Each structure stands twice: as C-alpha cells, then as structure tokens.
From TrEMBL:
<dbReference type="GO" id="GO:0006865">
    <property type="term" value="P:amino acid transport"/>
</dbReference>
<feature type="domain" description="ABC transmembrane type-1">
    <location>
        <begin position="53"/>
        <end position="259"/>
    </location>
</feature>
<keyword id="KW-0813">Transport</keyword>
<protein>
    <recommendedName>
        <fullName>Glutamate/aspartate import permease protein GltK</fullName>
    </recommendedName>
</protein>
<comment type="subunit">
    <text>The complex is composed of two ATP-binding proteins (GltL), two transmembrane proteins (GltJ and GltK) and a solute-binding protein (GltI).</text>
</comment>
<keyword id="KW-1133">Transmembrane helix</keyword>
<keyword id="KW-1003">Cell membrane</keyword>
<dbReference type="InterPro" id="IPR043429">
    <property type="entry name" value="ArtM/GltK/GlnP/TcyL/YhdX-like"/>
</dbReference>
<feature type="transmembrane region" description="Helical">
    <location>
        <begin position="89"/>
        <end position="109"/>
    </location>
</feature>
<dbReference type="InterPro" id="IPR010065">
    <property type="entry name" value="AA_ABC_transptr_permease_3TM"/>
</dbReference>
<feature type="transmembrane region" description="Helical">
    <location>
        <begin position="12"/>
        <end position="30"/>
    </location>
</feature>
<dbReference type="InterPro" id="IPR000515">
    <property type="entry name" value="MetI-like"/>
</dbReference>
<keyword id="KW-0472">Membrane</keyword>
<dbReference type="GO" id="GO:0022857">
    <property type="term" value="F:transmembrane transporter activity"/>
</dbReference>
<dbReference type="Pfam" id="PF00528">
    <property type="entry name" value="BPD_transp_1"/>
</dbReference>
<feature type="transmembrane region" description="Helical">
    <location>
        <begin position="238"/>
        <end position="262"/>
    </location>
</feature>
<dbReference type="GO" id="GO:0043190">
    <property type="term" value="C:ATP-binding cassette (ABC) transporter complex"/>
</dbReference>
Length: 291
C-alpha cells in the first residue's frame, strides 16, 4: 500500500502571496526615482563614508575587546566567595545594564563638567599628576568608555552563565588533583564554558557593530555621522541613509558568517560529547554485569 503525502495547500497559497507582496515592494523601490539609486552608488565609495566605515570597524573591535575582558573579570568577581568583590561586581552590572547606553555616552562626554581636572595619585597623600579633563576625555575616549563599560556588564552575565554550565564536579575533581584555583579556571572550567559563551558573544559583536551608530550624538565621525555630515549639506537624506544601511548590512553579513562557523564548530564538539555518553554508559553496564 502506497503512502499518499499530505497536501499543504495553505502553505502554497501563503508562499505565493508572500512572493507577490515582496516582489511588488522590491519593484516599487527599484522604479521609484525618489530613492535616487544613482546617488547611492556614487556615495557608497565616497572617501568620507569609507573613513567612517573604518572608524566603525575599529570602534566595534576595541569596544568588544574591552567588554570581553571586563566582563570576564566581573563574572569571576560575581562568583567569588569574597562578599566585597561579589557586591561590587553586582553593583556594576546593576548600574551599567540598568541605564540607557545613550545616557552613558552623553555622561562620559560631559565628564569634564563634573571633574574639570583629573588627578593621578593616592586617596590620602600627594598627587602625582594633573590632567585637563577636556583634553583627556575626547570623543574617542568617551565612545570607548560608554560602549566598553556597557558591554562589559552584558558580557559578564554571558560569561557567568557559561561558567555555571560547567558541572561542579569538574572543579572538585581538579582541586582533588592538587591544581591551584587559577589553573582550575584556566585549564578546566573556561575551555568547557566556551561552548556556551562563544555563540551569544557573536550576537553581542553584531549588536555592537550597529550600536556604534549611537556615538553620532557626541559628534564622532563613524559611518552614520559621516553620512549625516554629507546629507546636511546636499539634503539627500534618504540616499545617504541607504548608503550607511548598505554598509551595515555588508558588515553584519560578514560577522554572521563567522558566527555561524563558530556555532557549527562548537556544535560538533557538543555532538561528539553526546555520542560518547552512551558508549560510556554501555561500558559501565557491561563492567557491572561482569562483576
């Protein structure tokens, strides 16, 4: 007896309707002269746009590096048995995760209004050096402080969840072998936690790429602000926004490909681990049967 497959007429109708709607939308964009696609093509390789693109790239990399390092430190502080370290880390996450990033950027940019002079020295004792806050807190420093410190709060939760995913018996077994706490963390815990940490970190990196557009409010010439400078002079707002969006899509696509590759890599590692578990159970069963 042959099996007759189910016919999904609803899916076919929905797919046809969706293709027609999307086709009409794309056609309206292509044929609408107000989009000015010739200007979009012209400004895609504009020198100011490309300089802003490079600024966006290095700002993304630098801010994520700060966030990852700081997040790892804060995560270790939060799981520490020292109540002072744990409380300070929790307070840091509470403040920087609980306030808008835009507010933080504006705050760091205007830090000189609170502290016109930055002093390097001891809390009680002589001062070693004095610095003009306006010269130290430039738009670049303010952007890195705002993005990096904010990202550190989110990365600390990602790292902490990865560390919590490692079974507690791993730490106990390593300590029973006489390994120091540092070696246990760097050799045993962190390598296993990376399977949980890496995928969401990829999402954070893609999010950081787009979040860098917020620094345009403090007049940092990244990709979006470079487009804004151009369309405030030629009044071609929509074409320049399309140019910026196109480059964001290109960079996001590249990062997404890298993220998918990492997820497949760590997914294979998880599958190998899962396959080894039944074998271990079977060996243990045979061993017990022979006793």
């Amino acid at each position: 007896m042959s099996v007759v497959p189910l016919k999904h007429h609803g899916r076919l109708v929905a797919a046809v309707v969706l293709v027609v709607v999307l086709g009409g939308f794309v056609m309206s964009m292509v044929t609408n002269p107000r989009f000015k696609w010739n200007l979009v093509a012209q400004y895609l390789t504009n020198e100011s746009i490309l300089n802003g693109l490079l600024t966006t790239v290095w700002l993304t990399v630098a801010a994520m590096a700060i966030g990852i390092v700081l997040g790892t430190i804060v995560a270790l502080m939060r799981i520490s048995d020292n109540p002072v370290l744990s409380t300070v880390a929790s307070g840091y996450v509470f403040v920087f995760r609980g306030t808008p990033l835009l507010v933080q950027l504006i705050f760091w940019y205007n830090l000189s209004a609170l502290y016109p002079t930055l002093t390097l020295g001891f809390p009680v004792g002589p001062s070693l050096a004095h610095f003009d806050a306006n010269k130290v807190i430039t738009v670049y420093v303010a952007a890195l402080l705002g993005l990096g410190l904010n990202e550190g709060a989110y990365m600390s939760e990602i790292v902490r969840s990865g560390l919590a995913a490692v079974p507690g018996g791993q730490r106990e077994a390593a300590q029973a072998l006489g390994l120091s706490s540092f070696r246990v963390m760097t050799r045993i815990i962190l390598p296993q936690a990376m399977r949980v940490i890496v995928p969401p970190t990829g999402n954070q990196l893609i999010g950081m790429l787009k979040t860098t557009s917020l620094v345009s409010v403090i007049a940092m010439e990244e990709l979006l602000y470079s487009a804004q400078l151009i369309y405030t002079t030629n009044f071609q707002t929509i074409p320049l926004l399309i140019v910026a969006s196109t480059w964001y899509l290109v960079l996001t696509t590249v990062l997404s490909i890298g993220q998918n590759a990492l997820e497949r890599h760590f997914g294979k590692s998880d599958r190998r681990t899962q396959k080894s578990k039944p074998m271990m159970v079977e060996e243990a069963t045979v061993s017990n049967a022979g006793i």
